[in-house]
Design brief:
By secondary structure, the chain is mainly α. The protein has a domain of 108 residues: Nucleotidyltransferase, domain 5 (2-Layer Sandwich). 47% of the residues lie in helices and 6% in strands.
Length: 163
Amino acid sequence: MPVGLQIANLTDSKKKSASVRDELYDQIYSSGASIGIGQASATEIDNLNILEATMLAMQRAVLATNPTPDYVLVDGNRLPELISSSRALVKGDVRCHSISAASIIAKVFRDRLMLELDQQFPNYGFNQHKGYGTQQHRQAISIYGPSVCHRQSFKLTSITETQ
């Protein structure tokens, strides 16, 4: 984010409703902030592990950012190898404006991706649980098996009998 850029109401994306996140997403994109999206595939997660795949996705996000940032702040306690100077900041999404913005961008991007996947794989209910391991999602996997977008290394625990 450009030095001095302030966008009202930024905080951890989990603390905002979907409609507020959508509004903030649009504000961030129109603000002049430089944005890069990075992803890791289910296969990469299976081959690397979730933490290393997350580091890879962060590297890709920084490489996709134009212009390349001078300094990168990362939410958490680990840093990927980056071409820019960087710092990890625990609870960064509630402490740092640019990390809050990145949290909003990532959450909205992911939610929209889940809506697209719901069109391709309607039996799984991605439009409702957004890919999180809810009982509904686990039940769909137990009935239909994992789709090509599911991690094969994820162990589906038995569904409780409280249905």
